[in-house]
């Protein structure tokens, strides 16, 4: 059964490469279908890969090879909750180490321009507490690129 809501991500021409990378990087992720264009279109030719159906952490997505007209921005990102520093490092290093780029406060960008927030649960838990504990954790986060779990835990304690 097809999901009622699917995230459509516009790529220039390499949606299949991106989908394969996401499937290899994140659990509960896979490429489920690849569809070729039935005829020529503004971004490509008949027989080119037009769409790729895939899941990222169980979220249904469709990669559309629409050509160079639109680029990804930080206005859309995947926020990935991590359980520990090892998981945080693994996802961060996979994205940044595969042609991506670091940003701030747990954000990074993959080589296709898609933004990811690699967010340890200890950080979101600290922010949810509110008050002085949340303020300390937030101020610690503001100095980081990749989130340092031990530093967030130390900030929570004061």
In words, what does this structure look like?
The strands form 2 sheets. The chain has a 4-stranded mixed β-sheet. The chain has a 4-stranded mixed β-sheet with strand order 5-8-7-6. The termini are far apart. It has helices at residues 15-25, 85-97, 121-129, 131-141, 149-157; strands at 7-11, 30-36, 49-56, 59-65, 77-82, 101-102, 107-109, 115-120. The mean pLDDT is 96. The protein has 158 residues and is an alpha/beta fold. The protein contains 5 helices and 8 strands. The radius of gyration is 18 Å and the shape is elongated. It folds into 2 domains: 7-65, 2,3-Dihydroxybiphenyl 1,2-Dioxygenase, domain 1 (Roll), CATH 3.10.180.10; 77-157, 2,3-Dihydroxybiphenyl 1,2-Dioxygenase, domain 1. A hairpin with a 4-residue loop joins strand 6 and strand 7 (107-109).
């Amino acid at each position: 059964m097809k999901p009622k809501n699917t995230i459509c991500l516009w790529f220039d021409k390499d949606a299949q490469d991106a989908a394969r990378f996401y499937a290899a990087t994140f659990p509960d992720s896979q490429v489920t279908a690849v569809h070729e264009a039935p005829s020529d279109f503004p971004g490509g030719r008949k027989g080119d890969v037009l769409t790729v159906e895939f899941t990222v952490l169980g979220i249904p997505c469709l990669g559309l090879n629409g050509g160079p007209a639109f680029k990804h921005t930080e206005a859309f990102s995947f926020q990935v909750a991590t359980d520990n520093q090892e998981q945080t490092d693994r996802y961060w290093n996979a994205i940044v180490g595969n042609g991506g780029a670091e940003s701030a406060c747990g954000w990074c960008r993959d080589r296709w321009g898609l933004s990811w927030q690699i967010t340890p649960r200890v950080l979101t838990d600290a922010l949810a507490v509110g008050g002085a504990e949340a303020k300390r954790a937030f101020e610690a986060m503001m100095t980081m690129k990749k989130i340092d779990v031990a530093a967030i835990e130390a900030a929570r304690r004061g």
